[in-house]
Amino acid sequence: MSLVVGGALALTGVAALPGSAQAATGPSAYVANFFSDALSVVDTSTNTVTGTITVGNSPVGVAVDPAGALAYVTNFDEGTVSAVDTSTDTVVATIPVGSNPLNLAFTPSGDRAYIANSGATTVSVIDTATQAVSATIPVGNSPNDVAITASGTAYVTNSNEATVSVIDTASNTVSATIAVGASPAGVAVSPSGAFAYVSNSAGSTVSVIDTAANVVSSTIAVGGAPHSIAFDTSGSRAYVADRGTNVVKVLDTATNTVTATVPVGDGPVRVEASPSGSAVYATNLNAGTVSVIDTATNGVTATIAGFAGPYGLAFAAAPPPAHADIDVDLTARPQVGLLVPFLSYTLSARNTGPQAAGSATLTAKLPPGAKATNLSAGCTAAGATVTCTYAAIADGASVNKTFRVPLHLLQLGPVTVIGERTSSTPTDPQPANDTASVTCNVISIVLVSCP
Fold first, then answer.
1. Which entry of 116, 141, 234, 439 is 20 to 30 Å from 132 by CA?
2. Per-residue pLDDT tens for 150-166?
3. What is the C-alpha to C-alpha distance for residues 61 and 305, in angstroms, rounded to an integer?
């Protein structure tokens, strides 16, 4: 296991920018820990590490598919890719690829992933439906990074050859080879798809490729050892991780000039823009941290610790808010052949999902002057109101609470009781079924009809 700056193993830990994660409230960031064989899960709403997933040996690159369902992680010393289910944060497949896989990117449809195998001068193509390699494409010497346009053209940096291979993903063949600067490491395609920016780690430059003609249209002097590059969501700026000087440099893509320099941690190797575009995250290999840069101010607003050689980073969208629909039901049954006749009520909380309910509170409003007795556990009465609390209710389950109303406390005629959900967790998405009522007709203390 080795890391060479500006050489064959100038790792960048790439992930394609997502098209748009976990008990996270914000998007999750997955960070590969090169020195601990683990993938860290970061809740970006709090910028805290919330979980760790064991993957293969020396994980480097991370990419999340466009649907946000799978995170692929390259295992450099193992020659494999770990497929992680982002809904459970578990490894669901381990896929053999070429030697020393570095970085990867998904096609826009998510049906394939392209992996740069730096030790095999090839790119492996994984069919994401079968989780198996479906093609192997020869490219240049020491392929490092991959970026794919919306139209399906892949750009692969070849670090030991100072070239970029252009792959037609429809035929999985190299359609062009473009000369760039020394030791090209990172590559990113602009949101418009018009340009591919290549960071040349030994050349201290960024090459701008016109994707229509597949030629270098501009070369930007950035200094240091630029490794990874990423665009903001608008494409007006590009962010370059400079491992040589421990900064992230901000490029104005209209003028192709450096407009800001942001100090980060020791050894920044990867930058990625958050899905909202409000922040850029930089992984600092030597410091064991991730720096969070506010794109409005170009200042570091947070430094996340707890990593072991953080390299690749990719975002998965936040999971949809948890919902549990509580359907309220209320029934009544007369009990008149007794010494003290009464109406027996059942107040039901039925969870129609989709998630389990943590708790619920329902009330029953009685007619004026009525009083409830014989209440179920968890129910209390105050005047003409019965309040019942319910513990956890599984999706599809129903829990009943009962109480009685003695008939001698009721007036003759129709007697209406109204049940209502007053609170529950998580959010109830359907208010239309939050209430229920039942009306019994009291003709005499011994003659009562209920629906």
1. 141
2. 999 999 999 999 999 99
3. 19
